[in-house]
Amino acid sequence: MQEGGLDGAIGKGRVSNLISRFEENRHTDGRREGTPPKQVSRSPNCSPPRKNYQRPREQTSDSSPHHALKPPNGVLAKMNRDRDKERDMEGVTHAPVPIARINKQGLLNGDSVDLTNREITEEECVDSPDVHLNQAKEEEEQEKRKVSEQSDIVRMNSIPEQKETNEQKLYKIANELLQTEKAYVARLNLLDKVFYTKLMEEARKDTFPVDVVKSIFSNITSINAFHSQFLLPDLEKRMGEWTSTPRIGDILQKLTPFLKMYAEYVRNFDHAMDLLKQWIDRSPPFKAIILDIQSQEVCGNLTLQHHMLEPVQRVPRYEMLLKDYLKKLPPEHMDRRDAEKSLEIIGMAATHSNTAIRKTENLKKLLEIYEMLGEEEDIVNPSNELIKEGHILKLAARNTSAMDRYLFLFNNMLLYCVPKFSLVGQKFTVRTRIGIEGMNVKETFNEDYPHTFQVSGKERTLELQASSKLDKESWIKAFTETIDISLQKNETFKSAIKDTEEASDLNISELGKRAPRWIRDNEVTMCMKCKEGFNAITRRRHHCRACGYVVCWKCSDYKATLEYDGNKISKVCKHCYFILTGRTDSDDREGKKKGILEIEAAQFCGSSIMCGFLQYCERNKPWQKVWCVIPEKEALVLYLYGAPQDVKAQSTIPLLGYHVEDNPKATDPPASFRLSQSKSIHSFAAESEELKQRWLKVIRMAVTGEVPESPEENSSAEITEELNSNGN
């Protein structure tokens, strides 16, 4: 019994091994031929099969019982795979599949097996599916799993997402308030601790007036202190204890009264923009400090003007967040009363800011266009409003070739521009500025170029081609509406002028004797004398104290005594000035201060620190002979005249801040020197080295802000002698 059991075990091991080899051969043949293995009948004429390899244990004797304990290589792995399959298919019933008892002598290397000659025994049937049956069932199971997964996805999508609770929404709003407050305080620090502080440090050196810097930044220091020392710390503390104290209304209700300080900043904003532009143009050191800070990473490639818009826009932001907070706040919530009081206070402060915001948003767009135009066009003022912009083709007048152009249509003018090559952003050069007043637009027809129309103004007529019919209609509509609005304003203005003039004619005898009724600022949009549009930067509104007209500063630059005001000298318009003083238009400017270039050169000869002829060259222009004067009254300015008796200077150079270079280039004339500042370079050459050193002594003091003294050599006799020699 023991030996029989051993033989049986060995026999079963061999059969399993043979089955494995048989399956491997089947798969190998299938891979070779790409089709299932065929049954091959051996011809008796065929040579006997050659055996390449036989396992030694196939000829084992009964004296090797250890084979019953250690199955052939590969059997354990197959048994494990079968066990895993049985576990996976647990509960699945199928018909028993018999295993064929194969004569091992018939299995030769590379031969097929004659399945019809197998002897099948019912006892050796096992519950293991055929390989192809397994593959089919596995594919079926995979399909079932895919369908199941898709069903799960559809079912999950059909389930609505879990909605945020009201408490979570309130927390998100409060957290947004905190995060935006942190970013806002960073901007305030940039304005207060960087821009304002550095400009004040330089102003205290008398480089430019301290009052100018203070006027530009208004009360920014107080605003920064309030937010960084009070509001932000309180919000951070409250968000840290939100779980126990979920409310922000009490903090805002306590601190929002301080937001009234924004009224001063908003009221001063237009004036601040005006001063900022003036001193950037006037003072090179002022401009250099601002440009240096703007180039730093902390500025984020934004200008000072952009950062100064932040305080104007902040208060309405509080109002918006608090309104959203109140919508989510239950009526019985403990924070509701404080939040409502806070909103009322913030709403009052926001009323002052909303109008300013509309102006600042328009101003922000104007600043962007100003940068696109190379900062050369003076378009940044609140009276300008952008209507439409975009690319368009311009048809040449001679050969009707189309050229790419860009238009900026404003409420009062059209900028006709040429695109410039630029690696960073769009850049344009203004070719023509056309006023809206007197402009006409009409549709044209051109067989070669469709979608054309014509814009005709006082300055120029343009034939333009749009990209499509809709684009053409859009441009024509924009031009037509802008022209119509301009005409309506002019008609209203003319009507107001007519009514006022009639009233003035009736009461001309009382001019200056009775206080007039002032025309309200919002009743006119342009000067009632010269008809130039008002803006907050270059043309502000002024009232004539005699007739009550609203005029610009140029038209109000007259003074006369008014009887009704105790004969005090008051500001009046040009028309009233002639009536009250009896002067005519020919001598209306007598006694008035002349422009900086209108001072006659002869006036300086006897009262100058230094004067004389020098050769002058600006950039790459040709050298020319000019009469240079540094007057005693304006010791920091160099006047350049064409001749000693000219009534108007060609140009002036404010010497403060310039760098003096006493190292002439090889191409410069002898005894030459240069004044340089940023991109501005002025070259001079004297008649002799001695005269050059006299000029340098005076200029070196002037560029540092010191008032120079007249050199002893610069006597009146020498000046007279020089004038005589040049005259000969």
Describe the structure.
It contains 17 helices and 20 strands. The protein has helices at about 1-35, 75-90, 130-160, 165-205, 210-215, 220-240, 250-255, 260-280, 285-295, 305-310, 310-330, 335-370, 470-505, 575-580, 600-605, 690-705, 715-725, and strands at about 100, 120, 385-395, 400-410, 415-420, 425-435, 440-445, 450-455, 460-465, 540-545, 550, 560, 570, 610-620, 625-630, 635-640, 650-655, 660, 670-675, 680-685. Helix 11 runs antiparallel to helix 12 (about 335-370).
Q: What is this structure's SSE topology?
A:
Layout: H1 2-33, H2 75-88, E1 100-101, E2 119-120, H3 131-158, H4 166-203, H5 210-217, H6 220-240, H7 249-255, H8 262-282, H9 284-294, H10 304-308, H11 310-328, H12 336-372, E3 386-395, E4 402-410, E5 413-420, E6 427-435, E7 440-443, E8 452-456, E9 461-465, H13 469-506, E10 542-543, E11 550-551, E12 558-562, E13 568-572, H14 574-581, H15 602-605, E14 608-618, E15 624-631, E16 637-641, E17 651-654, E18 659-661, E19 672-677, E20 680-685, H16 689-703, H17 716-727
Antiparallel strand pairs: 1-2, 3-4, 3-9, 4-5, 5-6, 7-8, 8-9, 10-11, 12-13, 14-15, 14-20, 15-16, 16-17, 18-19, 19-20
Helix pairs in contact: 4-5, 4-6, 4-9, 4-11, 5-8, 7-12, 8-9, 8-12, 11-12
